[in-house]
Amino acid sequence: MRHYSHAQEPASARSLGRGVMGFLLFALALLVSTACRATAPYPLFGPTSQEPSVATYKAAAGEQAPQSYTELSTWLAARTRVRSVDMLGGDFWLVSSLSPNQPVSDWVVTFDNTYYENASMLVLGDDGSRRQVETGADTGVNDIPRGTIAVTLTPGHRYAVVIHVTSRFYTALPRIDVQTRTQYHQRRTNESALMLGSLGVLFGLGVFILFVGLWIKDRSYTLYGCQALILVLGWGFFFGVPQSWLGINTGPINFTQWFILLPVVHARFTIRFLDLWRHAPRMARVGHTIALASIVALPISLFFPSFAFLIATFAVSIVVLFSASMGLWALLRGVRRARFFTLAYMAVLVPGLIILPVNFGLVPSIVDNADLLTLMGNSCEAMLLAFALADHVKLVEDGRERFRRGMQEAVAKASIDPLTGLGNRLAFNVMIEEITRRENTDPAQGTWQIAMIDLDGLKQVNDSQGHERGDDLLQAVGEGLARLGDLIRAFRLGGDEFALIAYGDELSQQRLARSLTELDMTLRESDFPDAGISFGICSAPPNQRHLSSADFTELVREADRTMYAHKSRRRTERVTDQPMPELRSE
């Protein structure tokens, strides 16, 4: 049975984990307290807008809006005021009073900060003016995602904004912004550029990495590509791209279904990328539970559309928290691939801490477009996850390079005779195989030569002086063969057998024979007078461009025959040189 224990976790890692968790809790408390104290959202994406207070009234079927500013007081008295819109949807009247605070007449009133399906915006003035527009996701004219109405507001007059909104759910507390037309266009340009840029980043990365994953058959890349493309679809539906820009009627499908689908691939990507089945199987099962719960929640969101946004918010929050926690867990345990992974989820967790209380209707938004801020966080997350995948590829390549070098070192060690430092029989065979794959481009410059060498007298040295002395003799022969030249490769094939592979012409072969004869004389004149070497040299035909394995085998055999002939002559010479024994007379 395999046990997974975390008892050996370093104290510094545990301290760092507690520090990060404490920082996140502090940041959440700070954001919530700031939101509670905020009187107006912070303008991140354009000039500060005028934000009048909004009164909310419950709307009944068939109710009509007031026809003029003078009827407004009587009309309001007949309405039932409520604290705010119900996050689970419904019909509501939103009423706000305003007066221009700048000496200009061209203004834009914006119904902002929440997703809605249908809204009728009406601006009434005490000067008798009346301006009305229809907007909303179902009408296909909402503007990323807000309703706007261009009006003429005369300084010194009072005006009222009356909005009848209908939706199956709301994503935040509605807000009414009033800006001059110049300020509105500046803000709209900024937000449109950021929205398109963020969607473009998500789409480009998603398509590219999905293609890479399918090409190399890596499930981590495939899951990440699907995750990025689902985010593109979700945010595209939220900002009304299919309806407003493409003229597509999406029917009962809205952005919530895409965000509910997101954890299905999101959790599996985390499990796969961090290899949780091997390192933390319990948490891997938690991730699969999140994915299965999202699959079950998807049809529920279609049958109960009022709960769709809350389900989506809860599902995305859980999977982001799961991924961020697993990334931090892996990072504290020294998993290098978790560096960019954890940073990616920190990038989406921070705006998530801002928007989550807003999505549940607990506090007003502390920025002017929290949804766009979250989309930008998702694009940063996507880029950092792409870095994480690239870093993972580098780690894999580094591992392969280390393995390759290790194999090379192992092969090198396996190819070297430990006593003499020469190549062994494996190295000899490998070099012959390499030569047979080449072609001798210029046979006139030379050809391959084989020398087979047998060490004479090794057994006598071992028997009379010991094996250590025999090893000294072998090392002396190895050193002598290694010094023969750069174009000559020496090998010890085993025991007292050696071999040389050289390249050159007939003259170089003669020099090789003289060098081996000199080595034989050196051994005799040294501490090994009874030792020597017998050798035979054989060259390939000078006009042969390519040598096959059979050709080399024949060269080795011919060199062996020459070597044994040399050995036989040396043995005969030793017998002849020995003095005749004296004859005793009886």
From TrEMBL:
Reaction catalysis annotation: 2 GTP = 3',3'-c-di-GMP + 2 diphosphate
Residues covered by region (Disordered): 565-586
Gene3D superfamilies assigned to the protein according to its UniProt record, in alphabetical order: 3.30.70.270
InterPro entries in the record: 7TMR_DISM_rcpt_extracell_dom1, Diguanylate_Cyclase, GGDEF_dom, Nucleotide_cyclase, Rev_trsase/Diguanyl_cyclase
Its EC number(s): 2.7.7.65
Major enzyme class: transferase
Transmembrane segments: 193-216, 223-243, 255-274, 286-304, 310-331, 343-366
Domain GGDEF: 446-579
UniProt cross-references to CDD domains, sorted A to Z: GGDEF
Keywords: Membrane, Transmembrane, Transmembrane helix
UniProt cross-references to SMART domains, sorted A to Z: GGDEF
Keyword Transcription set for record: no
Pfam entry (one): 7TMR-DISM_7TM
Protein name: diguanylate cyclase
Organism: Dyella lipolytica
